[in-house]
């Protein structure tokens, strides 16, 4: 191993494995600081989209298409990330005392986020969903 590779691994957070990324387990990828930084960035971006949508809806009846598209995309990515974490951590997802309640909370948020467009499509009447939609937005902001 070259000294530059060691420094790069330290920067990238590769303290568990010396092999190429292709040999990492799903659990190691999910625990990697770069993966977690990308997910954290997406959470911040989603929060900004929610703020923009709430501000927009205070003056307009319907959100712009790009806000809904961003919201649906974030919901889909969060659902995929949650499924990957469940697959990677299996029973530890709910049994690990350090992260159990955060995982339950995150699961509730993702299910709420994914259910919002389903409820909107099923009822096809956004005017009657103001209270439910507002509650879902509030939960997503948490």
Topology:
Elements: H1 3-12, H2 26-31, H3 33-57, H4 65-89, H5 92-95, H6 100-123, H7 130-141
Helix pairs in contact: 3-4, 4-6, 6-7
The major β-sheet equals: none
- Compute the CA-based radius of gyration: 19 Å
- Written as H for each helix and E for each strand, in order along the chain, the element string is HHHHHHH
Oligomer: single chain
- Please tally the β strands and state the result: 0
| Shape category | elongated
Give the structural class: mainly alpha
- Taking the alpha carbons of the first and last residues, their distance comes to 44 Å
Count of helical regions: 7
Give me a quick take on this structure.
The protein is an all-alpha fold and 142 residues long.
What does it look like?
The chain is mainly α. The chain has 7 helices and no strands. The chain is elongated.
List the defining traits of the structure above.
142 residues; mainly alpha; 7 helices; 75% helix; 0% strand; disordered N terminus
């Amino acid at each position: 191993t070259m000294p530059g590779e060691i420094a790069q691994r330290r920067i990238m957070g590769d303290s568990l494995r010396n092999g190429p990324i292709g040999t990492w387990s799903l659990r190691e990828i999910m625990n990697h600081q770069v993966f977690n930084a990308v997910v954290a960035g997406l959470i911040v971006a989603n929060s900004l989209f929610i703020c923009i949508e709430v501000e927009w809806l205070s003056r307009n009846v319907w959100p712009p298409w790009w806000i809904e598209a961003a919201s649906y995309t974030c919901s889909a990515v969060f659902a995929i990330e949650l499924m990957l974490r469940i697959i990677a951590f299996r029973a530890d997802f709910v049994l690990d005392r350090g992260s159990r309640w955060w995982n339950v909370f995150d699961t509730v948020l993702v299910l709420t986020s994914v259910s919002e467009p389903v409820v909107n499509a099923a009822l096809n009447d956004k005017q009657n969903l103001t209270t439910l939609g507002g509650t879902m937005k509030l939960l997503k902001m948490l």
